[in-house]
Design brief:
This protein has 547 residues and is mainly β. The strands form 10 sheets. Strands 3-2-5-6 form a 4-stranded antiparallel sheet, with no helix packed on it. It has a 4-stranded antiparallel sheet with strand order 9-37-36-35, with no helix packed on it. A 4-stranded antiparallel sheet has the order 10-11-12-13. A hairpin with a 2-residue loop joins strand 35 and strand 36.
């Protein structure tokens, strides 16, 4: 029987009953074996199994013993040894894919089947996790598209209704009797209803013998203009003095100076013309049947007349209304010689730095075989003051019309071309060629603007050296200046007021017969004109249609 007190193990018995201290195990450096090559690197064959300590054991024994225990090393280095740096644990490769270690040698040609090794790219960094809220697809209800389509359709219908029915302004043009011509914004149209965009639009209705309708209006949204009215018959002028040939108004607007049927100059007071029948006052005693041009002095005390024989000076003495007429200047007989060749005369109206006395300086022309000669003289026709200042080429001036007026520096020369004559330097300045064939011109007060007319009747405004087409037709002498910026121009049977600063126009009611006038005058809203019947008057009416 074994001894009950003997509890020693067999090993303790061999060692004399005491257990020796365990000997320190040597520190084995950590070696990371290279991972096996991938199937691609071995040509599709499984990698060889590395030998293990139990590689010589029978399979059954390995199964019984299990895997060998992992070797452990102490965290503390032995004396005289340096601790190996610790490395972070490596994440195992994903299943099915074994990445070779960067420390492993490249596989041999035999392992890769004779093909060069494939370049191994470093692994991509992991993608950030998806936001569960944003990662989910948005589901749109199909009814939303149907609702949007309905809203857009309704909007389009409303926009069309607004644009075609509410937005346009409407103009109904149906006057009676049927007009000869209707224009809407410059285009000829027929009677009917018209829709126009809001903004400025112009309408013109014309019929011979009737007062024309002219209107320019700023239309608002959906505004309506009804032009369904009866045209008004144009009124003719009232005959005042039968047989009268020319009419002129004194600068003080008190008298009409008239060239009567017998060739004498007579006067009619403006205040008495409309109130009672008056007999004109005779101002000249020698009838002149061939008068072509009359210049009246600013103060109304004398005049110069041009006929086919001479230039005459007519002095109107106010004391007892006696008159005195003599030949122009102190010379006896007809002057100038061959007065038939004098086309026009002009003089200064008003005083300025060049002419201290009004009506003291005269310019007239005379046509010769070599061209036009321009003469200057004073009112007395003094020999020292009468001289030829220049000759004009007939190629530039097939005809010639002169006007000096109040312009202190320039005389206007019109005839084919348009020129300005600088009076102090006596040098001409060409403004236009003769493609328009200009035939007449006139300065306005103070010489700021001038009007010139071509052979076709076109009216042009002259400002400095610039000609502007006013798109108005007229005839020579049918212009009345109201002031330096406004004038009345007779266009056909219609008087038109033009503002040369703003280009604005006012169309007055037509006056029957005024289109055949040869002279006009205007005073206090009444227009006077002479035609083949004599002197007539008519009221200047801005509108008869309540515009």
């Amino acid at each position: 029987m074994p001894d009950q007190n003997n509890n020693l193990s067999p090993i303790e018995e061999i060692n004399g009953g005491s257990t020796p201290p365990p000997s320190p195990s040597p520190i084995t450096p950590l070696v990371i074996p290279p991972p096996p090559p991938s199937a691609k690197a071995t040509g599709g064959k499984p990698p060889p199994t590395p030998p293990t300590e139990t590689g010589n054991m029978p399979p059954a024994a390995e199964d019984l013993l299990g895997p060998p225990p992992a070797e452990t090393t102490s965290d503390k280095p032995s004396l005289g040894e340096t601790a190996a740096p610790t490395q972070p644990p490596q994440a195992p490769p994903p299943a099915g894919k074994v990445e070779p270690s960067p420390l492993a040698p490249p596989p041999s040609a035999e392992a890769t089947g004779g093909k060069p090794p494939t370049e191994i790219k470093p692994p991509k960094p992991p993608s950030p996790p998806l936001d569960s809220a944003r990662g989910k697809p948005i589901k749109i209800n199909p009814r939303i598209f149907k609702i949007i389509g309905i809203v857009l359709g309704i909007t389009a219908v409303l926009a069309a209704i607004f644009y075609f029915l509410i937005y346009p302004a409407k103009i109904n043009i149906r006057p009676t009797p049927a007009p000869d011509k209707i224009t809407l914004d410059g285009k000829t149209v027929k009677p009917g209803n018209y829709r126009v965009k809001p903004g400025s639009h112009s309408v013109s209705i014309e019929k011979k013998g009737y007062v024309s309708y002219n209107k320019t209006k700023e239309f608002k949204i959906n505004e309506k203009l009804d032009l369904d009215f009866e045209l008004v018959l144009a009124q003719g002028g009232k005959l005042i003095l039968a047989g009268a040939q020319q009419v002129n108004l004194t600068r003080d607007n008190r008298f009409l100076y008239i060239l009567a049927k017998d060739g004498n100059i007579v006067s009619l007071p403006i205040a008495e013309i409309q109130t009672k029948a008056t007999n004109p006052l005779q101002l000249s005693k020698d009838p002149d049947q061939g008068v072509r041009k009359i210049l009246y002095s600013d103060d109304g005390t004398f005049s110069f007349t041009l006929d086919n024989e001479k230039i005459r000076f007519v002095d109107f003495f106010r004391d007892g209304y006696s008159v005195h007429t003599n030949d122009f200047g102190p010379t006896q007989g007809a002057w100038p010689e061959n007065a038939k060749q004098v086309n026009s005369i002009t003089w200064n109206t008003g005083s300025n730095q060049y002419f201290s006395t009004p009506n003291s300086y005269m310019i007239f022309d005379q046509k010769t075989d070599s061209g036009w000669l321009l003469y200057t003289t004073d009112r007395q026709h003094s020999q020292s003051k009468t001289q030829v200042i220049m000759r004009l080429d007939p190629k530039d001036f097939p005809s010639l019309y002169l006007d000096l007026s109040e312009n202190p520096q320039y005389a206007l020369l019109v005839g084919g071309s348009v020129w300005r004559l600088n009076i102090p330097s006596r040098t001409p300045e060409k403004i236009s060629d003769k493609k328009n064939d200009f035939i007449w011109g006139q300065w306005g007060p103070k010489g700021i603007y001038a009007l010139v007319v071509d052979k076709a009747g076109g009216v042009y405004k002259l400002e400095n050296t610039t000609l502007t087409d006013l798109k108005i037709k007229t005839k020579p002498n049918l212009v009345v200046w109201l002031d330096q910026s406004n004038a009345i121009i007779i266009s056909g049977t219609q008087p038109i007021k033009v503002n040369f600063d703003t280009q604005e126009t006012i169309h007055y009611a037509e006056i029957k017969g005024i289109d055949s006038a040869n002279s006009i005058a205007l005073s206090k809203g009444v227009i006077y004109f002479t035609d083949s019947e004599g002197l007539k008057s008519a009221n200047l009416t801005e509108s008869v249609y309540g515009q």
